[in-house]
Amino acid sequence: MVFGSADLQKVRLAAEPDPLWELVLSLHRLQTGRTETQQDGWEQSVRRRLTASGPAWRQWASILCTLVPPAGNFPDFLTPRPLITSVDEGCDELARMPGTRLRTDLAEVFGDRQRPRWVRELAAGDPGQVQQMVKSVRQGYDVLVAPFWSQVRHSVTADRHQRVQVLANDGLSQLLAQLPGALDWDGRVLTMTYPRKYTVDLRGRGVTLIPSYFCHGMPVTLIDPELSPVLVFPATNRGAAPARSEHDVQAALGPLLSPTRTDCLVLLRTPQTTSDLARHLGMSVGTASKQASILKNAGLINSVRDGGAVIHSITPLGKSLLTGHTTP
Question: 0.90 cut: is pTM over it?
């Protein structure tokens, strides 16, 4: 990655995890089975959710895994721009993606390989296929990322804090030199571990650095050098205690709460409506409402009506139950 003097003034560090990058990289993890120690329970939990949801997951999983193989390139349009902070925002961007971008990105990824019919139709900008892709992204996110968002945010926030400290104490050169995967920084060129030889000339545009919970091993960037430059790298948790994995939570709370209520409590680390809970857990709204009522009566969550929706959130007691220590 080649920096000019103007680029050194435009190095940005993402303040929040990017939901679409996390989704794409979680698909790599799901297909390869390689996870970090802190994610040991992630694959088990995801596979349990898939089994519980019946065969409906196979369509979105097939679409996403065709676009995002276990290794190698995936279309840049799946991560449409830097600093997307919600899956709704990301899906809106995908729904408006120009046909030329779809065609170019898919041609770059598939090359001369045989493409399924739906990929050819997507490349042609078929509205139905675009809608199905966006729906699949949302469904995949709901299963692979959303239930773990608290852990994702915790890891990324801890990593950002660490790098801001490096920047404040040691300067930009040390921030760049200490990025995961950095081999050398000579003041102009940042050389990174990467699966192939590839040069990104920033040309005064700067770069957005994005820590990622699901990124593993080598950093990742975009294929098209004309897009806004990003560098996605594995987040570290140094200096901050990670939340208990969902596997640990299930093991600890299994004798006390049902697996469904434990899943509910984990999800409510981030406030959710009853409909959100039902979608994430693969159940009816009525069943989700009943589970939330039981948790509320036990003092583990709060429920507040907002217009026509009820928003549920975890209480300090619920947090203490999940983390294994008291919450101030």
Answer: no
